[in-house]
Specification:
Elements: H1 30-34, H2 43-64, H3 71-88, H4 91-95, H5 100-120, H6 123-130, H7 140-149, H8 152-157, H9 160-169, H10 172-175, H11 179-184, H12 187-209, H13 229-236, H14 238-250, H15 270-283, H16 286-318, H17 321-341
Helix pairs in contact: 2-3, 2-6, 3-5, 5-12, 5-15, 5-16, 9-12, 14-15
């Protein structure tokens, strides 16, 4: 055991270090769990700060050019970055190394809540508007981004079947195999897993929300094929997610062994803590689902409004061709009836 108040991995059955060296030994309380406490090398917190500042700088650049950028997208991106910070730069990250339930909170936020907010920020659209569109060397970055978006690799990765499998593998392929114990055994493996949660979640919800340009073929991707198919894609994961949570809650043995030996003095039952983690996984889907459905409804309403305005402009410019055609048809019937009577 190291210095007072510092954890050196007493709970690890292999004898190696469990949590980061800065992790306090005191049992978790709401104040300790939510306290600001970044990692020694805070990869995800730094990335979140850089992405937030870069996004704001891009918005300011557009404003200087006189280009409007929706405030709602900026707010969504900012909230997404803050949720990443909330689970990676606080005690949640350290206590998540000792408690499966707290780790599951971190997993659910990074894979299901932060990605929704970040995707609603439309970062690809913002980047395409900021990058120069010239034919010369200055426009090479934008052309490269467009080539990547329309490449075969991007179409494959963004396919609904692929994103669905990747999203579900973050549950079943991680916790029901030795992969979780292996990754949690090192600091780098732990952070790699957190980055994986965030990236897979963003890929999955990017296709469903359809806010940004997508490599999915127009009219063929689920997110572009009407008002029902995105909901079906979202609902496709619900049974698998619920089943995972129920299995974890009802399990009579530990599904992962990293948490088999709790910290001394915490009076923690690993099996009860695992059941709590399963309940968190089972119940966490409600809030992200409501946010996604609300965003989809708003998107469809705006699409209908744009279509109505375009139709009004067309009628004002060319006249109501459908109504004129129908009137001509009625007049032709009237003339034919009149000729028959005569």
């Amino acid at each position: 055991m190291g210095a007072p108040g510092v954890m050196t991995g007493a709970g690890d059955p292999s004898g190696t270090m469990r949590g980061p060296m800065w992790m306090p030994m005191q049992p978790p309380t709401p104040g300790r769990v939510l306290a600001w406490h970044p990692q020694p090398i805070p990869l995800l917190p730094l990335a979140a700060v850089v992405l937030l500042l870069g996004y704001l700088a891009a918005v300011l650049l557009l404003r200087r050019r006189g280009v409007h950028w929706p405030l709602g997208r900026t707010i969504a991106w900012g909230l997404g970055a803050l949720t990443v910070l909330a689970v990676t730069a606080t005690g949640i990250d350290g206590y998540g190394m000792e408690m499966f339930s707290i780790h599951m909170v971190q997993h659910m936020v990074l894979s299901m809540f932060s990605p929704v907010l970040l995707a609603l920020g439309a970062p690809v659209t913002l980047l395409l508007r900021v990058l120069p569109a010239s034919r010369g060397r200055s426009g090479s970055a934008r052309r490269t981004l467009l080539r990547v978006l329309h490449s075969r690799a991007s179409r494959f990765v963004a396919h609904p079947a692929v994103t669905l499998v990747l999203f579900l593998m973050s549950l079943y392929g991680l916790y029901f195999t030795p992969v979780f114990d292996y990754l949690m055994g090192t600091w780098w493996g732990h952070n790699l897993m957190l980055i994986h949660f965030l990236l897979i979640g963003m890929l999955y919800f990017w296709g469903i929300l359809g806010v940004d340009p997508s490599p999915r073929p127009s009219g063929k991707g689920l997110a572009d094929a009407g008002a029902v198919l995105p909901v079906l894609e979202l609902a496709a994961t619900a049974p698998f997610h619920a089943f995972f949570g129920v299995v974890v809650m009802m399990s009579t043995s530990l599904i992962v062994h990293f948490y088999a030996i709790p910290m001394p003095g915490w009076n923690l039952s690993p099996l009860s803590d695992q059941a709590a983690g399963g309940g968190i996984a089972w119940g966490f889907t409600e809030l992200p689902t409501l946010v996604v459905l609300g965003a989809l409804v708003l998107k469809w309403q705006r699409s209908d409004q744009r279509a109505s305005r375009a139709a009004d402009r067309r009628r004002a410019r060319e006249g109501d061709t459908e109504l004129d055609g129908y009137n001509d048809y009625l007049q032709s019937l009237a003339r034919r009836d009149g000729n028959g009577t005569a």
